[in-house]
Each structure stands twice: as C-alpha cells, then as structure tokens.
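Extended Data, panel c. Modelled sequence:
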Amino acid sequence: MGIDMNNAALATRRSESISRGVGVMTQIYADRAENAEIWDVEGKRYIDFAAGIAVVNTGHRHPRVIDAVKKQLDRFTHTCHQVVPYENYVELAERLNKAVPGNFAKKTIFVSTGAEAVENAIKIARAATGRSAVVAFTGAFHGRTFMGMTLTGKVQPYKVGFGAMMPDVFHVPFPIELHGINVDESLHVLDKLFKADVDPKRVAAIIIEPVQGEGGFYPVPQALMKALRALCDEHGILFVVDEVQTGFARTGKLFAMEHYGIEADLVTMAKGLAGGFPLAAVTGRAEVMDAVNSGDLGGTNAGNPIGIAAANAVLDVIEDEKLCDRAEQLGSRLKQRLQSLHADVPEIADIRGPGFMNAIEFNLPKSDKPHADFANAVRVKALEKGLILLTCGIYNNVIRFLSPITIQDSVFNEALDIIETSIREVSKAGK
C-alpha cells in the first residue's frame, strides 16, 4: 500500500504523531533543496527566505559542505570526542579561537545546539567567577532549555505552563527607540537593579544578542554595547555575546560584535556554523574556559565529526566566496526596495538590520500600535506566490529576511518582486 505524500496528507499524519508543542510556520513538506530554493513533495518550488532560521547561510547543500561531509562519512561518523578524540574537532577549535574577536588566548568547546551553547556559557561563567546571578534583556531569545527560556525575555510562547524558571536571572529593558525605550533608560534600570535587587559583585555574566533575533531584529545600539563592556570590566562580570543567529557572515561580518569593536569574554554560536548540520560552540578567554573541571563539559554527540567537517567547509566557503561582502550587498538592495514602498504603504513602521539580517516592522497606519495581522498576511501572501518568509518580534508584527547569502541574483530579484507585490496587495486590501 502506497503512502500519501501530498502536503495535506502529511499534515494529517504529522498532527496524529507529533506533539503540538512543536509548531510549524507552513504546511509545505520539503522534498529537496538547492542553494536558496526548496521543492515540496508536490513538486512546487519555493524561494527560501528563512534558511532554516539563519542556518544555511551558505545555501542548501553547498557542494563544498556536502563533499566534506561525504569524505567524513567514509572515515567514521561517531566515536564520542570524550572517548576517542579526532583531529578535525581540534582544527575547528583552532580556527574559531583565531576568528572570534579578542587579542587574547582563547579556547573552545563544541555542543549540538544553540541552547546548549548558552547553557554551557552560563555554566562556565559561574564556575570561573564563583558567582551565580545572570543579567539578560527583555525580548531576548536564548533557547528552550530551562536556563535558555529563563534568559529569554518573552513569556509567550516560551515560558507558559512550564512552572518556575531558574533562579538568579534578572531582565533589563532592551532599548528600542521605536518603542519608546532608549539606551539611557536601559542603563538606568540596570543601575537600579544593581542597587535594589542584586549586588553586581554577585553577577557572573551579562548576556546579549548583538541583534535580537526572535525579539524582532533590533540591533544593539553602539552606546549600550560599549557601556555593558565597561560595566563588566568595572565589576568583574563576564560579558557573554550570543552570536547563535547573528554569526557567520549574516550581518556582513563573520561575527556581529565586530561592528562594535568590542571583545566578549564568552561567545556562543550555532546555526550558520555548520551549514545545515547540528553543531554549536562556545569560545572564550582561555583562563575562563579552563575554570571548569575536566569532564564537566561536553556530551555524547557534542562536536559530532560530521558537523565538524561541515563547519570547517563553511568557514572556507565564507572566506573564499567573500560572503561578508555579499551579505552587505544583498542587504543594501533589499532595504532599498523596502524603502521604496514607504510612501505607498502606511503600515510600514521601520526597516532595519545590518548586512543581510534585515527586517520590516508594521504598525496600524498613523499609529504606534503593532499590526501583527498585517505581518502575517504578508507572510501568507508571499507563501502563496512561492516565497517562504518568517515573522518575529515581541508583538509578532515583524517580518525577517534570512535568505542564504549564496542566493543567485536572478532568484534574489524574483524574491524582491514577490515581497513588494505581497506587501502592496495586503496594504491595498486593508484600505
């Protein structure tokens, strides 16, 4: 008996077999993918402006990544690095130690997911400082594990129903001028926090995304990033920069913090690191990374040799194909096209983002009230036309654009036309 492989049949099978806690943005089921295009099980082609949520920055199935993986498959697939180590793990650590900003000795560990990277960064920070408290920001996303969702600055959908969060985590408002919060106000709240709730000498780490991802693609203002670095230095706090979504050429630099000229004590990374294979890392000051006892870090699948092989190839592709420059070019073209709609689409509140980590935010016309329905309608309209988009933001009124940086010019131009048409049609329908 044959199994139905159309989207509707698969959606039914999915709902009957998979927890509803695992949500999906679309009801199209992938059959194959190449660079910036996906074909579903019914043969329909889509342009991918999600990239697995900033994972395939180097495109789906980049030939050099696939070749590296195939070669590793022919050697071995798993030994557990803590049992029988392997050279490519060491090589990738060496490369990240060199690539992560900071003129000091660094060391690296590998895990499997961004949430694990964040968990381990906090473990390391607590072990190195002998302190327990952590400061994060509203709107932040740091994962769905218990420490990850505690650090995450958004209740719905991440924290509802899961009981008490981890102790000793404090949140400070993230400055978003569009929402009426500036840097001075954020720093004032942080100062009050240190005076009223937690002694800064008890704080192990301050963690921040250089560009808030799920929170709405809001870049950290220069003044805040520099102030946080100075506060950490003043109080002996470790500065943790979460580059899980921003890393690996997405913002026009290998790491987004390069835009700020600052150095983090610990950096978390995942997503784009391995080009579609599960791999994450923490890189930090050598003395901080070595503060943890032997055996306290790692995992059975942490730093799997397949993911490691893919990541080494990804770093080669980013350098050889000049993807940082490419990200700047694509982002500039996208933002120009979006800006051209401003006069005709009163729902547009803001267009932003460094490199090719861009977003457009929608409000009700002549209002500062978020318009989530408009953003979702644009997403649905674009999907109908063959373009996959993602929404985000604390009010779900933001569309983020995360195409592979390797996207062909012809496909990119096609996507720009769909984006413009979709926005115009939704705006016109609302008038």
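The chain has two domains: 7-61+322-429, 76-320. This feature is highlighted in the accompanying rendering.
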